[in-house]
Design a protein that fits this description.
6 strands; 30% helix; Jelly Rolls; 121 residues; alpha+beta
């Protein structure tokens, strides 16, 4: 992926990067800091279920599955990240052969189902 296709950003702790249910228009590569991922359960309570840090990608599941965000991402330690637009993400995905694209989408759907079941949402 070309360096000029990534939009570099920084956010302070407490910033919400995206919310559960939002449309996915980008995903993010974390270069420093941390995010907490949480889901609102059936009772309306937020459940933190993951911490995302340096070198990890967040927001990709909704991009691959073309579904609303499954979680809320909140900055827990000041963060530096690179944003990858939906357009660039789709360009990269189109380079894969059809079998691999289908396999990736299947894995994401299974992971989404598991996350929903484990967090009661």
């Amino acid at each position: 992926m070309a360096e000029n296709t990534l939009k570099k950003q920084t956010y302070d702790a407490g910033h919400t990067l995206f919310r559960q249910g939002d449309a996915a228009d980008s995903c993010f590569l974390i270069s420093g800091g941390e995010l907490d991922l949480s889901r609102t359960d059936a009772d309306g309570a937020d459940q933190k279920f993951a911490k995302i840090g340096k070198g990890e990608i967040v927001g990709e599941m909704s991009m691959i599955g073309d579904m609303p965000r499954t979680a809320t991402a909140t900055v827990s330690k000041d963060i530096e990240l690179a944003e990858i637009s939906r357009e660039e993400f789709e360009r990269q995905l189109e380079r894969l052969n059809p079998f691999m694209k289908r396999l990736i989408r299947l894995i994401v759907q299974r992971l989404r189902d598991t996350t929903t079941n484990l967090t009661g949402g």
